[in-house]
Design brief:
heterodimer; A: about 600 residues; alpha+beta; 3 domains; six-stranded mixed β-barrel; two-stranded antiparallel sheet; 12 strands; elongated; disordered N terminus; B: about 240 residues; alpha/beta; Rossmann fold; four-stranded antiparallel beta sheet; globular
Chain lengths: ~600, ~240
């Protein structure tokens, strides 16, 4: 120990440095200060973290992306897969949330609170006690960010795992959160006199944990019931987050499976502005396209002598199958010839095959679609049912057949053949944006839109689709997590309740311990560790049960649940924090009991 | 003997606010106790002896006056310092033994050493020694419920001894015992006082307990009524 500083001053100085550090880091994250490239380099050298070189992009470009206002713009021109591009954009942007009131500001403000509190405590030692609270609040603010990073940021960025380590905020918040927990566990020693130098500031953790387990064993049923609250909460967090993550990766995979470099065009809501001729015009005007596939999709009653099914009829061109990476499992897809002749043929989905033909081979047999006879020429491979309509209840016919035989009344008006959407596959991945611009100009001209008119069609690429979908599932995951978090909160209140009862019941024990020389900080530790032991063992059990539940959901086959280290860390971390948060008050109450009154308590 | 002063109290006062009225529990008590003495503080209930014990035991602070325990002024200490001085200088023995029911005799005796920061192996060793001093060396692993009342009180005395305090402060130590085991406990106090030179202060309302101490301080209405020396007629064991 230093001769110049007392231990209190050391603690406060550490808080000051930590707070100032958080403040600066927070500012960089808001975009006001540009230290990230430097910090990233430091992280690499000091912490040994590496950005995998497998990415087809120079390191400098990545650094520039992190340091620029528009990460997406900085990343253009590199040959990245859409997923890589998305993940990198997301991670680069995550470090630079716009300077509105946002989470990085919280870190910054938290850091400022800590630093100011610590500075005041150094300046006026008699304020140290009050400042302790400021430091705590600041730490809590930063801790909130830590949870945010764990819980949310990662759920958006799944493709490139290392991105979380790019964020120095993550590390700061982690340290601050651990520091916050340690501050509560460590007593505040201030040895000024010989008397204070005697004895020990803190009883060994092992001793405390032993006492905590003894106390929990003394009331087995009560402890178990209290823990149950945490167990259920953590179980819910882990399993629901796993389900959310599972749904997210399922959707991401589904969209990626459609094929890369796709551009989608749809009619704007409530207009039938897109017509077949638009697709033809695009095909004839825009270069570098592999496929242009107009689609007309409509619901229909699909029947045969065995039964009747409500299904969807997808009318498209023969390119539909290769463009969507779809294989016809039995039989064959329709060909150009059948397309040109509007042949009455269809490839049917597995669910329809099952319901109408059972174990029979449907190929060569006839079904009726809107009372029209159609010959089955193939059965589609089984497709994953994501969110939305089950694709196994679809049948696939030539678009010409849709117009001529099936939906003439609805789809064709005054010789305009409307389409539901157009799928375009671009030959060169880097040209997607340019192609989109070209198509937009072309369609606006064809639809006679004036300069001030909005598009009467919607144009988006696969990456945007991916973003939209993962935003939706991200929100879903957070929502599920939040619901689970509420049950964890309720469990925490249960812990606090029992802890308060326990403090009252053991008033005499507290009095005795104090008479024998326990300091207030010893008592605080004892009770705090008791709640933490309770919540953490509940958390561990909850994680195990949560994993089990997620596996069960997986086994049921309805939804696939992905158990990630994040959800486990989140569940466990939350349970420890719940123990600290809800344990502090009862423990403080115990610590502040007057020894003589506690001894005489009946 | 020109022994060192353990307790040096001067003009101690203590008053409580009970609703509207102020209760003056101590009205100016001055008391000196030297090392190696065995003193009884006695008086009827409500006399202020419990208040005096709480202050002497550093469990409570006086409203006025000064109190030095083993040369250390107590009235100005904060809670942490008070805890330390209790741990280091005072061994408490209570009427109701106050043992932790789930801990063994050895663990109970070692408890003050936990807060003194003594290592686990040293704690065991010293606790064992203290138990041997009260003739319970063979019952170290018994839980309090497996011991008789007299044995429990001896465990409590071992706990009071274990950190080598300046004095043992006993609050009605025989109050929960039958007269025979009460005698035993008092004999143990005598033995510790005479053979080991330990300073012992017993707070009691029972005249027969006070009669066995060499010095008797009588408190009445918050003041010292008398401070006399006895010739104890106790049978030596």
């Amino acid at each position: 120990m230093s001769r110049f500083f007392t231990r209190t001053q050391w603690r406060i100085t550490t808080a000051l440095i930590l707070g100032a550090f958080m403040f600066i880091i927070g500012l960089t994250a808001t975009g006001w200060l540009r230290l990230d490239p430097l910090i990233r380099d430091l992280a690499e050298v000091v912490l040994g973290l590496e950005i995998p070189d497998a990415l087809p992009i120079p390191r400098q470009a990545l650094t520039d992306a992190v340091g620029s206002d528009s990460a997406a713009a900085a990343l253009t021109g590199y040959n990245l897969t859409p997923i890589q591009r998305r993940a990198l954009t997301a991670s680069a942007t995550a470090l630079f949330v716009p300077p509105a009131f946002s989470i990085p500001w919280l870190v910054s403000i938290g850091g400022l609170i800590v630093a100011v509190g610590a500075g005041l405590a150094l300046w006026r030692p008699q304020w140290a006690d009050a400042m302790e609270w400021l430091i705590r609040i600041g730490g809590l603010v930063a801790g909130t960010y830590f949870i945010y990073v764990l819980g949310m940021q990662n759920s958006y960025i799944r493709a490139v795992r290392f991105t979380q380590y790019l964020s120095p905020l993550f590390w700061v918040a982690l340290v601050a959160t651990l520091g916050l927990i340690l501050r509560e566990l460590l007593p505040s020693p201030a040895p000024k006199t010989e008397l204070q130098a005697r004895g020990t500031a803190s009883v060994s953790l092992g001793q405390n944990i032993g006492v905590a387990f003894d106390a929990l064993r003394a009331n087995k049923l009560r402890s178990a019931l209290t823990m149950l609250g945490i167990i259920i909460g953590v179980m819910a967090v882990v399993s629901l987050l796993s389900i959310g993550q599972g749904a997210q990766s399922a959707i991401t995979q589904q969209i990626s499976a459609i094929g890369t470099n796709l551009v989608f065009i749809q009619s704007a809501a409530s207009s039938n502005s897109l017509i077949l001729e638009d697709a033809t015009a695009i095909e004839n005007t825009v270069d570098d396209l592999t496929y242009v596939i107009p689609q007309y999709i409509a619901g229909a009653q699909i029947k045969n002598e065995n039964g009747s099914v409500q299904g969807r009829v997808v009318g498209a061109t023969p390119d539909y199958f290769p463009a969507n990476n779809l294989t016809v499992e039995v039989g064959r897809p329709y060909d150009e010839n059948e397309y040109d002749n509007a042949a009455r043929v269809a490839v049917i989905g597995t669910a329809i095959a099952e319901e109408l033909f059972g174990s029979l081979n449907p190929v060569g047999r006839t079904i009726r679609v809107n009372s029209q006879r159609i010959q089955v020429i193939g059965v589609m491979q089984e497709r994953d049912a994501g969110f939305g309509a089950d694709p196994n209840y679809q049948i696939y016919v030539p678009l010409t057949t849709s117009y001529k035989s099936l939906f003439e009344a609805r789809a064709v008006a005054s010789s305009r053949q409307t389409v539901s959407s157009i799928i375009i596959s671009v030959a060169d991945g880097d040209a997607v944006t340019a192609v989109q611009d070209q198509i937009e100009r072309l369609l606006r001209r064809r639809h006679n839109l004036r300069l001030e008119d909005e598009n009467d069609f919607i144009l988006f690429d696969q990456q945007q689709l991916l973003e939209a979908a993962s935003a939706v599932t991200g929100v879903l995951t957070i929502l599920l997590g939040a619901i689970a978090g509420v049950s964890l909160l309720v469990g925490g209140i249960g812990i606090m309740n029992i802890s308060l009862v326990s403090v009252t019941e053991r008033t005499r024990e507290i009095g005795l311990r104090k008479a024998l020389g326990a300091r207030p900080s010893h008592i605080l530790q004892q009770f705090l560790i008791e709640t933490i032991v309770m919540s953490t063992s509940g958390g561990l059990l909850g994680v195990l049960l949560g994993i089990g539940l997620a596996q069960l959901v997986n086994a049921s086959g309805v939804i696939s649940a992905t158990i990630t280290p994040d959800s486990i860390a989140l569940g466990l971390g939350f349970s420890v924090l719940v123990g600290v948060f809800f344990g502090v008050w009862p423990a403080r109450r115990a610590a502040s009991l007057q020894p003589i009154e506690a001894l005489r308590y009946e | 003997m020109a022994d060192k002063v353990v307790i040096e109290a001067h003009d101690l006062t203590k008053s409580y606010q009970m609703g509207e009225t102020t209760v003056h529990a101590l009205r100016g008590v001055s008391l000196t106790i030297r090392a190696g003495e065995m003193v009884a503080i006695t008086g009827p209930s409500g006399s202020g002896k419990s208040t005096l014990m709480a202050i002497i035991g550093a469990l409570d602070l006086p409203s006025g006056g000064s109190y030095q325990l083993d040369g250390q002024e107590v009235a100005t200490l904060n809670e942490t310092e008070l805890a330390t001085i209790r741990n280091w200088r005072i061994g408490f023995v209570f009427q109701k033994f106050n043992l932790l029911p789930r801990a063994s005799a050895l663990e109970n005796v070692a408890l003050p050493l936990v807060y003194a920061g003594v290592s686990a192996s040293q704690r065991r060793e010293r606790a064992k020694k203290a138990l041997e001093l009260v003739d319970l060396g063979s019952r170290t692993h018994h839980k309090p419920t497996e011991l008789s009342g007299g044995q429990q009180q001896r465990v409590a005395i071992a706990r009071a001894l274990v950190n080598e305090p300046a004095m043992i402060l006993a609050d009605e130590p025989t109050g929960n015992l039958d007269s025979h085991t009460g005698e035993e406990v008092l004999r143990l106090f005598h033995k510790l006082n005479q053979e080991n030179g330990i300073t012992i202060v017993i707070v009691t309302h029972a005249p027969e307990v006070a009669a066995q101490c060499r010095r008797v301080v009588r408190i009445k209405d918050g003041l010292i009524e008398s401070d006399t020396l006895n010739t104890p007629e106790v049978a030596h064991s």
